[in-house]
Amino acid sequence: MNEVTMNKEQYVTRVMLDMGVPAHLKGYHYLRKAILLSEEDMEVVTSVTKLLYPEIARLYHTTDQKVERAIRNAIEVSWMRGNMDTIQELFGYSADSGKGRPTNSEYIARIADKIHLDLKYAQGA
User: Fold this and answer.
1) What 3-state class would DSSP assign to 68?
2) Nearest-CA neighbor of 66 among 106, 24, 30?
3) CA–CA separation, 20 and 40 (whole Å)
4) pTM over 0.90
5) Which structural domains are found in the chain, ordered by start?
């Protein structure tokens, strides 16, 4: 694993923990992989049910439905218990605003985009 990949993985982990995604949840691992895959190819976010969930299910030897549910649960937990400042910074509104949590694909896409842009600027591109 090269240094950029290692830094990316560490950065995704840090952002997820700051968002309040508990590391003990199965969905944490699926969500982390979903963000990493999406950061590399944003096309997968446009079809989470046909591309992203099946790929993660294959990697973790489980079903698409279990991946989707575990990710949804992890997002719900982070939305309720996470760092409100980070949520506001990333999504432009807080969990208390009444707008409800973002969909799985919105959540994944927003964090993947943040990771992509932050790493791009960090590398001086």
Assistant:
1) helix
2) 30
3) 23
4) no
5) 3-122 (1.10.10.10)
Closest CA relative to residue 114, chosen from 44, 36, 53: 36
pLDDT digits (tens, 9 = 90+) for 47-100: 999 999 999 999 999 999 999 999 999 999 999 888 888 888 888 765 556 667
Cβ neighbours for 123, distance < 8 A, ≥ 6 positions apart: 4
* Look-up of token digits 């982390």: 32
Q: Are 52 and 38 in contact (CB under 8 A)?
A: yes
As a whole number, the mean pLDDT across the chain is 87
Tokens of residue 26, six digits: 């199965």
Nearest to 7 by CA among 43, 30, 39, 53: 39
First to last CA, the chain: 21
